[in-house]
Amino acid sequence: MATLDNPFTPGFGQVPPFMAGRRYVIENIEDAFVNGPGDPNLTTIFTGARGTGKTTLLTLLADEAEERGWITARVSSVPGMLEDILQQAARSGSHLLAQEQKARINSIGIGGVASLGWEYADRNNAGKNWRSRLTSLLDELEPHGVGLVITIDELQSEFDEMVQLASVYQHLIAEGRRISLLAAGLPYQVSRVLNDKSISFLRRAARHQLTRIPDSDIRVALKETIEAGGKQITDEALFAATRAIDGFPFMMQLVGYRMWPKSNGNRIDLNAAKRGIEAARYEMRSNILETTYMELSDGDLAFVKAMLPDKDVSLTADIANRMGKSTGYAAQYRRRLLEEGVIGERGRGKVGFELPGWRDFALEKLEEEDF
Ligand SMILES: Nc1ncnc2c1ncn2[C@@H]1O[C@H](COP(=O)(O)OP(=O)(O)OP(=O)(O)O)[C@@H](O)[C@H]1O
Ligand SMILES: [Mg+2]
């Protein structure tokens, strides 16, 4: 019997064969690509904790945009971003752009050390230059009815090129250009970016927070992925897996990926699920939980510790009490942890942990450190 390829995608930013949830946000932005200029969702910022699917969503949406006749430039917030946008746009639109235009973009791009030095020597001039280069690219696309989608991953604050981009983008939108900006970042990075006065325009962007995915959506996507891959899963295995995944996209891929080779024949039974879950938990710890834990301050950890006595959901008032602090004091750590994606709101004045396995992990860590 030939072995079936594992259909799960636990690599970062890989678009899975079946997305769990996220249906409406995807649909709304797809509609925006059809509606064109004026649709507010053409400028959208996604926030979410590690492993919630930001990169995946940007990739998927850029692919969808291309299918609807847009060209795309897919970049991250790293030095050289502006240049990268032009190069990628030129490549993506090469079938439409005149030869001369392509050469111009490329020659400026490969201008090397001299042009770099000049750019830094005269920032304003470089900014203007970039704007006119982008504008002439859009000019050439316009007769074809084609627009440009820019996706920016891993938004970072205090990044000059982002300031420049936001200012140029604002003008292009005002001119009614066919252009779209989809950006993503960790919540605290995004709030820092939006608090930067020079980028205030982006505060008007549509915001979308990638939170936990409902169990019912996880169950469906898990089953579909397995069946489309040529295997079956028993109901009890599906139930156990969904529970362990706890609404977290990266965990869905880990659990699925690890259960797959453990199947009994082509059937993933409870035993296979349990073994897969165990392996996935281990990876989840090293990939997500450890990294997140390292970023927390003592105040954050005190808040986390004060949540542990509750079974599932904690009242903010109880947490403050256990911390021996005012609710106002506790509130600042509540906000920080919400932004880190460690906790999520569970109704008025209530919070719960967002990351699967976090409770046991935190308990163990805090004990180990005698916190
Ligand atoms: N809606 C979804 N359904 C199922 N799996 C998903 C979904 N979205 C993302 N994934 C999977 O989750 C994993 C993490 O996705 P991704 O790398 O996009 O997260 P991220 O938010 O960009 O994380 P980071 O902050 O670390 O960059 C990937 O393995 C991806 O295939
Ligand atoms: Mg990412």
Give structural attributes.
alpha/beta, 3 domains, Rossmann fold, five-stranded parallel beta sheet, 371 residues, binds magnesium ion, Helicase, Ruva Protein, domain 3, three-stranded antiparallel beta sheet, single chain, binds adenosine-5'-triphosphate, 56% helix, globular, AAA ATPase domain-containing protein
How would you characterize the overall build of this protein?
Helix content is 56%, strand content 11%. With 371 residues, the protein is an alpha/beta fold. It folds into three domains: 23-209, 3-Layer(aba) Sandwich (Rossmann fold); 215-292, Helicase, Ruva Protein, domain 3 (Orthogonal Bundle), CATH 1.10.8; 297-368, Arc Repressor Mutant, subunit A (Orthogonal Bundle). Helix 7 links the parallel strand 3 (148-153) and strand 4 (179-185). The strands form three sheets. The chain has a five-stranded parallel β-sheet, with helices on both faces. Bound molecules: adenosine-5'-triphosphate and magnesium ion (MG). Adenosine-5'-triphosphate (ATP) binds next to helix 2 and helix 11. Pfam families: AAA_16. InterPro entries: AAA_16, P-loop_NTPase. This is AAA ATPase domain-containing protein.
